[in-house]
Design a protein that fits this description.
disordered N terminus, 4 helices, about 20% helix
């Protein structure tokens, strides 16, 4: 288990405090019809996959599904609900796969593992790669990938 002694006052962990191989999981979050409707309005993506219940009854999914990018956005929030918040300065990169649908009423959670970390040419920051797996309530992988985060180093 990690010790949180010496963390930043806000609970954010510096680059030096993050260990390669550490794993953690978020609590669940149920995706609602309201989430999908609001995301369609925000993004402008009114594709029938997300907005036409009658059309989708005849689809391979049998019902409307959430936008893939909505699932990606929700997992970002779930990362911070793990309680293992990094002193992130920037979101640098993303490799992502959409493996299965997220349906209305699905409860998703995030499982993560710190895959690697490396110093940069700047003494005040480092890069951390985090493997992320989004699972539904049946433990099916619906999304997975890696994110690269620029994380603040402990001030001298």
């Amino acid at each position: 288990m990690l010790s949180y002694a010496g963390m930043t006052p806000s609970g954010r962990r510096y680059f030096e405090e993050i260990e390669v191989g550490e794993e953690f999981e978020s609590p669940g979050r149920t995706v609602t019809e309201t989430d999908i409707v609001l995301f369609a309005g925000l993004s402008g993506d009114y594709n029938v996959l997300h907005t036409d219940a009658e059309f989708m009854k005849k689809s391979i999914f049998g019902e409307r599904i959430a936008h893939g990018l909505l699932g990606l956005a929700i997992q970002s929030g779930l990362f911070y609900r793990t309680g293992r918040v990094f002193a992130t300065l920037a979101f640098v990169g993303l490799k992502w796969k959409f493996k299965g649908p997220i349906k209305i009423g699905d409860t998703i959670r995030l499982r993560t593992r710190v895959a690697s970390k490396r110093e940069t040419g700047k003494t005040d920051r480092g890069l951390v790669v985090v493997e992320r797996t989004v699972l539904n309530q049946r433990d099916e992988v619906v999304q997975e990938g890696e994110t690269e985060l620029m994380v603040e180093r402990r001030p001298a």
